[in-house]
Description:
Chain A: InterPro entries: DsrEFH-like (IPR027396), Sulphur_relay_DsrE/F-like (IPR003787), Sulphur_relay_TusD/DsrE (IPR017463). Chain A: Keywords: Cytoplasm, Transferase. The complex is a heterodimer. By secondary structure, chain A is of the alpha/beta class. Chain A has a single domain (2-127), classed as Hypothetical Protein Ychn, Chain: A, CATH 3.40.1260.10. Chain A has helices at residues 14-28, 59-69, 78-83, 89-94, 112-120, and strands at 2-7, 32-38, 74-77, 106-109, 123-127. Chain A has a 5-stranded parallel beta sheet with strand order 4-3-2-1-5, sandwiched between helices. In chain A, helix 1 (14-28) runs parallel beside helix 2. Chain A starts with a strand and ends with a strand. Chain B has a 5-stranded parallel beta sheet with strand order 4-3-2-1-5. The model of chain B has no long low-confidence stretch (mean pLDDT 96). Chain B has one domain (3-99): Hypothetical Protein Ychn, Chain: A (3-Layer(aba) Sandwich), CATH 3.40.1260. Chain B is globular and about 30 Å long. By secondary structure, chain B is α/β, with parallel strands linked by helices. Chain B has helices at 16-23, 45-51, 63-68, 84-93, and strands at residues 3-7, 29-32, 58-62, 79-82, 96-99. Chains A and B meet through helix 1 and strand 5 of A and helix 4 and strand 5 of B.
Amino acid sequence: MKFAIALFAAPHSPASRRALRFAEAVLAGGHEIVRVFLYQDGVHSASANAVAPQDERDITADWQRFVERHGLDGVVCIAAALRRGVLDTDEARRYGRPAANLAPGWQLSGLGQLHEAVQTADRLVCFGGP
Amino acid sequence: MATLHLLSHSPFSDERFASCLRLLGERDGLLLSGDAVHALQPGTAPRDALERLPASVALLVLEDDLNARGLSDRQPARARVIDYPGFVDACLQYAKVNSWL
């Protein structure tokens, strides 16, 4: 079966860890993840600049490794990312910002990508929320 | 069409839990994760509301979150404790998954 996973919460929230554990179980169960979509504060999980405290699990790095290792379609809402300072090189240049910090494995795109993922997947499972 | 409702916020901090219970269909499922497992605390209104749900509504609880909150010996007999593979399976047993964000 095909899953779409949307993450709305920041990487230091329990919801982010729950989403990652769920995503791991989806693949371990022989299912497919058509897209991981980061929205609202979830976009911080795609930052290459976040530094987790040494005694905490580095969820941002875990997400990045997970998406890359499995060649997943990791999409970050561009509007949510820009306002939170998560930029790729194109956006950093476009807005004259000093650095790009989008981690490898992720790409910035529009909210339409979430809509499309929902059409493609058998199930959408969302994590997070204020 | 049966729906699995995914709750992850404490029933003591906002109206998500109460709204969800009002909308539950007879064949729907309810999965408590994160702080939503606090609804199992005995002697509270949320716990009583869960006990009163029709028997046809499945009550699932995510094991990690239950244990993390020290409620593993408090769940009602009707609750089924599941791990992450069980969470994935539960999503597929229902036609839709509704996350109460």
